[in-house]
């Protein structure tokens, strides 16, 4: 048998085994997660029955599931959900880009850090509940005020992680590029940014969660549509089953957004230790 045929045979025989092993591992993790979830729901249901808790105090999982189904099937949840998601994704995109650019400027030009960084920290220390009414006054009850609030909330973790990642770049690699007459732009493009990507994605994962929280806070303060508006309406009518179902919608949304970012991270930062198999 020739040497050219051998690698092809090995690829045909080993690749399906690896794929089957990985698929079984994924199925096992999904099954384990679902098992824990249904066990939690069962304990919740039994506790409600044993202690005879009223639905206006703490709803049963059956009532929450019924409200969840009715809200989805009627289209009410989806109508408000897309309004919330539009503000979350728009504000997250603006805040992420702003944090990334500011992080690059701060690490490249020390004067930018001395001038802007104290004000950025001061802005982040302000509670979002306190500045949300200002956003409504300045930008109105529409989606614009929510986008600004979300962008402010998610910008800081991405900024901090970008700075930490760029400053953690390998000094030996930077010295090598400079010895080869590389420019600062080439150092940033080929050394600093690739080294900072795992840090940046860590900031993005934090930022996407803060984006959802800030959007709901903004909708609580003033909005015409959105999941936060539905939660306020359900609270006023003491419909706690609907409140729990809407919280479940937000939780599922946060899990899916975080999972999407981790999926992108594994594809982009394939050299990172936590991104490898």
The CATH first-level class of the largest domain comes to: Mainly Alpha
- The computed structural class is mainly alpha
Could you give me the name of the CATH homologous superfamily of the largest domain?
MetI-like
CATH architecture of the largest domain: Orthogonal Bundle
**What distance separates the N and C termini?**
32 Å
Overall geometric form: flat
Low-confidence stretches: 9-13
Query: Could you say what the CATH topology of the largest domain is called?
Result: MetI-like fold
Total count of strands: 0
In what range is the share of β-strand residues?
Answer: under 5%
Number of domains: 2
Helix content: over 70%
Report the sheet with the most strands, covering strand number, pairing sense and barrel closure: none
Computed Rg: 24 Å
Counting DSSP H or I runs of 4 or more residues, the number of helices is 10
Instruction: Provide mean pLDDT, rounded.
Output: 86
